[in-house]
């Protein structure tokens, strides 16, 4: 982050200086009192189970030069205290001010499934022409997006920012910070349907990204998603569609799975045909690559360089990471789960399996509301329909997954269910043998990586 003066911070957040020097320079913004560095401005946030205001004094002792506060507080001697009405809103307001200092292209990404993989793919492509700032880890919410923006400095030539949400209004607030020049929506699924009630409402919430889109900006949408393609000719922005259907602006064809080595497809760009290789398994990654291609072309990167970037793509941690351990092949896809991503991961399990037995170790998919029981049953059925040998279900909805698998024709001797990760891991440790291939996947709250850790320790 570049230096921010106390005076401009006060102006950006609409605050009042309680104590300290108005000419103080801050080198970083922190919301975590455990990671304070010399020269920081501490922003104490208030949650259901915590209140950062309790750590203001500690942060100042650790080297922070000042703090925001929404509480009434007395002077902090020579340290800066700035009174605001709401520290979370102040964090957003300050990030909005800081982002406006940079006249570089910003890409905003949202969608029900594949946001992070698309962010990584777009970043890999744009890195062939720019020094790119991208969202790190899961910093895609109302705290993470501002902190991502504060990582900008004058060396950056482009930014790729992921935006998540669980309800209406969240993406609206995030896009008002980022103000993207390119807005990408990956798809409209059923994640968060518990709060939003329908896929049409989910579409409406995702479309909030357009509120911040530069009026001369570009919308890049998945044309194979019926809800998104329904926006054709309805948006006031330039719009391109990607996918595998005919007549789309960026269309992949001649798809070929290479198993564990990834996949290839052909595409026509600027009047010439190219073959693109994705170095990770899963045909669903073709969509991520197409979004990257569209963004790269928009920002003037040559097709040849774009293809180089895609070939250097690497998925994030616990996203279809393939581990080889003592004769076992383990697909660690434990970062999160939805019905769509479950099916995609099961497809990868099938694609990379050879002679060994296949195991789908499936945990709960959270935030599905009224469709939770039916969605878990459908996942069990889908795994069996793809020829997966053994189904291992874990969590509250384990019986639904098991029921779906058995209903689809799996013998009861091939379907197992366990209440928690430890029980499932103990069973697998005894039951697995060299040559077996297993997928481990569930929602973030299930912490399915615990199973992977036990199997590989």
Automatic annotation (TrEMBL):
Enzyme class: ligase
Domain Mur ligase central: 109-295
Gene Ontology annotations of biological process type: cell division; cell wall organization; peptidoglycan biosynthetic process; regulation of cell shape
GO cellular component, one term: cytoplasm
GO molecular function: ATP binding; UDP-N-acetylmuramoyl-tripeptide-D-alanyl-D-alanine ligase activity; UDP-N-acetylmuramoylalanyl-D-glutamyl-2,6-diaminopimelate-D-alanyl-D-alanine ligase activity
Signal peptide (residue range): none
A Pfam family of this chain: Mur_ligase
Compartment annotation: Cytoplasm
Homology family: Belongs to the MurCDEF family. MurF subfamily.
Protein name: UDP-N-acetylmuramoyl-tripeptide--D-alanyl-D-alanine ligase
Species this protein is from: Acetivibrio mesophilus
Gene that produces this protein: murF
């Amino acid at each position: 982050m570049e230096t921010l003066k106390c005076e401009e911070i006060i102006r950006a957040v609409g605050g009042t200086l309680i104590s300290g020097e108005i000419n103080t320079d801050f080198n970083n913004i922190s919301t975590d009192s455990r990671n304070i560095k010399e020269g920081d401005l501490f922003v104490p946030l208030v949650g259901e189970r915590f209140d950062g205001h309790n750590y203001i004094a500690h942060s100042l002792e650790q080297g922070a030069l000042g703090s925001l506060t929404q509480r009434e507080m007395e002077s902090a001697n020579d340290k800066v205290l700035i009174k605001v009405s709401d520290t979370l809103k102040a964090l957003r307001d300050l990030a909005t001010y800081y982002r406006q200092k940079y006249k570089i292209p910003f890409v905003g990404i949202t969608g029900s499934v594949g946001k992070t993989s698309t962010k990584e793919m777009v970043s890999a492509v744009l890195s062939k022409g720019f020094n790119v700032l991208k969202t790190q880890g899961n910093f895609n919410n109302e705290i993470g997006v501002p902190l991502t923006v504060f990582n900008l400095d004058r060396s950056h030539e482009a930014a790729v920012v992921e935006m998540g949400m669980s309800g209406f209004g969240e993406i609206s607030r995030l896009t008002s910070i980022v103000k993207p020049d390119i807005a990408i929506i990956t798809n409209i699924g059923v994640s968060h349907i518990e709060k939003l009630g329908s896929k049409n409402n989910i579409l409406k919430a995702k479309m909030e990204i357009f509120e911040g889109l530069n009026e001369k900006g570009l919308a890049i949408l998945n044309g194979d998603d019926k809800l998104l393609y329904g926006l054709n000719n309805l948006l006031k922005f330039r719009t391109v569609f990607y996918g595998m259907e005919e007549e789309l602006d960026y269309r992949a064809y001649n798809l070929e799975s290479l198993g564990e080595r990834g996949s290839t497809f052909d595409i026509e760009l600027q009047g010439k045909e190219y073959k693109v290789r994705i170095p990770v398994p899963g045909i669903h990654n073709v969509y991520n690559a197409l979004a990257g291609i569209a963004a790269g072309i928009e920002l003037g990167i040559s097709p040849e360089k774009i293809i180089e970037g895609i070939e250097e793509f690497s998925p994030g941690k616990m996203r279809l990471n393939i581990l080889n351990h003592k004769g076992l092949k383990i697909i660690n896809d434990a970062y999160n789960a939805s019905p769509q991503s479950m099916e995609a991961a099961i497809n990868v399990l099938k694609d990379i399996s050879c002679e060994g037995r296949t195991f789908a170790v499936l945990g709960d998919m959270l935030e599905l509301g009224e469709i939770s029981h039916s969605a878990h049953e459908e996942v069990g059925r889908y795994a069996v329909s793809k020829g997966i040998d053994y189904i291992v279900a874990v969590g509250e909805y384990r019986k639904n997954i098991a029921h779906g698998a058995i209903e689809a024709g799996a013998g009861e001797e091939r379907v197992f269910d366990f209440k928690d990760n430890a029980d499932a891991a103990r069973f697998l440790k005894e039951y697995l043998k060299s040559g077996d291939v297993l997928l481990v996947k569930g929602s973030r709250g299930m912490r399915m990586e615990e199973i992977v850790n036990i199997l590989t320790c």
